Amino acid sequence: MSWIARISLCLTLLGGHAGASDAAAEARARGLAAVGKEIFHDLSLSHPVGQGCVSCHQPALAFSDPRPVSPGAVAGRQGTRNAPTLMYAALIPSLDQEDFIEPDGVVLWLWEGGMFHDGRARTLHEQVAMPFFDHAEMNLADEAALAAKLRQTSYFDRLSALVDPADAGDSDPLVHAARRALVEFLKEPLFRPFDSRLDDFLGGDATALTASETRGLELFRGKAKCADCHFLTATSWPKPLLSDYGYDNLGLPSRGGKKDPGLGGHTGHPEEMGQFKSPTLRNIALTAPYFHDGSMATLREVLEFYNERDVEPRRWGPTDFPETVNRDDFGNLGLTAAEIDDLLALMDAFTDRSLLRMRESGTSLPEAPAGTPDAWSMRAYFPDWNHRATPVKPMPRAQPPR
Ligand code: HEC
Ligand code: HEC
Q1: Distance of CA 325 from the midpoint of ligand 1 (Å)
Q2: Closest CA to 366 of 39, 58, 60
Q3: Would you call the peptide bond into 396 cis, given omega within 30 degrees of 0 as the criterion?
Q4: Contact at 8 Å (CB) between 343 and 216?
Q5: What are 85-100's pLDDT values in tens digits?
């Protein structure tokens, strides 16, 4: 057989094989998502037992935590950051650097995406195992401890049937399958309904917003400059995610105690000390308190801070990393009280109706509107789509000095 014939035979076999394995992969992904839902709600996987993902990511609050910081499984231990929403979290791009060319031609390498407020987990796959082993969270000793717990669960048989040892890299294959299960669950339509009134308005329904909210949207795009970072345009997903997932130091009031270095804490770059990821503003009205440290109780306070940080420095006091604060984009926006009311009204229109329906009916999870595409048909859009093996660690590159 000539080498050309051999290659074409291989391709034919591969093609046929790909069809069959695609169907198998789809069935496996669906099975994983179903088990992932059980893992998410399981309170037996912590040490001591009693805490699960759902304890700090409450479905009725768009999977966030109303406490500024969450207590851990061990009494008296707690984290230092506010638990963010998990709505749209599976759509956050993986941590990477983007080249940004300034008007004078200087190229900056800016971090973008990643999980946690500081991006220290590059992907969702990497992130979902971390709460199990965090001593301020679920407090398990190691993967062996998690695997032992998983073996005791009611869904163990279903999970072990989904294990693919070839997939697991260095990790325990059962734990690896549990991670894949959580990732597949977080990709489910219920986490990405895109059914807020803002979506209706951007989709062409001019009556979806009130007059005040429409003025708020103009401000959001214009004078208040919010959309410079909380994007209203579609980027990595066919619909806008209300974030660029870039990093900034807003100059939040110092809380005393240990300073939180954010992004700079793991990249080691001085310019990135005190920078945190810009989050989605979807469902923001449900996810108080605000910012990475949960330090602001209301959206009004957040807006007053953006508007008057530099006008009323005494109200806000000193900040932890003054050298890296963004002083160009906000701090003195000159918004009037009426304009702040319009922006506040607008942010109410960022709430998904499926979450409002869930809160009214008291069901345990929201349900995405009919027609929301399933995770398999959207797989190429998810940042995790080709993560068959353990993802590589990010390689920090230094930024040239400004
Ligand atoms: C004790 C409370 C607690 C528990 C339990 C917990 N989380 Fe979290 N979660 C947090 C906090 C706090 C953060 C932000 C931490 C940070 O930025 O350092 C977070 C961040 C996240 C993020 C990142 C979201 C983003 O926008 O970057 C994801 C995803 C997530 N958690 C999923 C889970 C899953 C899955 C579980 C269960 C395996 C879980 N969490 C268990 C408190 C918790
Ligand atoms: C230069 C980029 C940038 C601009 C412009 C910007 N933001 Fe933000 N926003 C961020 C970052 C970064 C964070 C996270 C900061 C932190 O937690 O330390 C954030 C956080 C928030 C939060 C808290 C989110 C949460 O889940 O706790 C709200 C609310 C918010 N922004 C609203 C706005 C509004 C309204 C505007 C316009 C007035 C605006 N932002 C302008 C980057 C920006």
Answers
A1: 26
A2: 60
A3: no
A4: yes
A5: 999 999 999 999 988 8
Which atom of ligand 2 lies nearest, measured to the CA of 328? Answer: 1
CB 65 within 8 A of CB 82: yes
Burial class (CB in 10 A: 0-12, 13-18, 19+), 393: exposed
Our mutation pick for probing the ligand 1 site, out of 35, 54, 56, 243, counting the most ligand atoms within 8 A of Cβ, is: 56
Instruction: Give the separation between CA 348 and CA 192, rounded to whole angstroms.
Output: 17
Question: In the predicted model, is pLDDT for residue 287 greater than 60?
Answer: yes
Q: How many residues does the chain have?
A: 402
Nearest bound ligand to CA 282?
2
d(CA 92, CA 244): 9
Among residues 49, 86, 48, 44, the alpha carbon closest in space to that of 65 is found at: 86
CB 208 within 8 A of CB 157: no
pLDDT band at residue 21 using 50, 70 and 90 as cut-offs: confident
pLDDT (0 to 100) of residue 386 = 52
